[in-house]
Amino acid sequence: MSDKHYLLEQAYQTNNLSKDEIINLLGNLTISDREVLYGYALKTKQFYYGDKVYLRGLIEFSNICRQDCLYCGIRASNVKVERYRLTPGEILGCCDKGYELGYRTFVLQSGEDLWYTEEVLIALLQEIKKRYPEVAITLSIGERSAETYQNLFDSGADRFLMRHETASKELYETLHPTMRFEDRRACLSTLKEIGYQVGAGFMVGLPGQTLADLAEDLRYLKELRPDMIGIGPFIPHSETPLGTEKGGTLEDTLVMVALARLLVPESLIPATTALGTLHSQGRELALKAGANVVMPIITPTSVRKKYALYENKICGDDKAEDCRYCIERRIHSAGFEVDLGRGDPSLYSDKIF
Ligand code: 5AD
User: What is the spatial order of strands in the sheet that 136-140 belongs to?
Assistant: First the structure.
């Protein structure tokens, strides 16, 4: 057995790898190493979740953003974006449609848009929960105060997605001129303390990102133990300062998805839209490398293309029902089953830790 195969077997058995071991693994991975890794990640996922893949209906409700992240197509400085905001009534309409299509988790995502005040969001959460008491609501709206997070939780928000983006302080600060590394981490800890199911995660292939940075991303996740982990390739957007940089690759992203599965085995890991954009089979490959969630878009077709964090995003002309059934076909073709339940974290997790 090669050194790398041995290390991967250890990681499979212990769900642990040191930073140095990860760095060592990531250097010159062969195709055969990758296959061994994906196999262990798949077995780990199957132990916790079987062949089930959970669906979350994604509503991208505003592309207005006060932040100016260098990589992001809807950054405040990009004057070429046509901005939109869905009204609470329109968002509720998306939930109705999503419910009809069978979704029992709604992910409400937007730029950091303070038009949606705490009061507006509370009223919206309460109305969604009144109509559909059994659904889980996930917020992905960026940084707010601890008090606001608490009040939103008390009004019915169950989960919160906030990628840490990169665990390197230096890289984080270069990429986020309007934000602070420590604030991001504090938000994630606060959300966890309040009781949200929390999703962290990062991009792969950012300009200047080293193997040591990626190893640090995985170690941070191992420490934080988030319920959800979103990992996607960086895809350059021409109207941003990083428009001419190289993006992340399919293979590198799949490797990080698989390692995240080994290190945080009970987590919920989406096969991201960014992976589907990079490669026609990107999401299916991610499901075979340890991912177990897909987030089909239910944003109204009329505004979809305006929510372009990166270019050539898939499904821009589709309707909610197109995405619902396209995803189902893809999940089946990859050999997995759709689970339309809320998809809470594995019941095994408490037994293991
Ligand atoms: N390429 C890939 N992912 C991106 N995101 C933002 N911009 C890009 C891009 N150009 C990701 C960030 C953010 C999530 C919603 O989308 O990680 O947290």
Answer: 57-62, 105-110, 136-140, 159-161, 197-204, 228-233
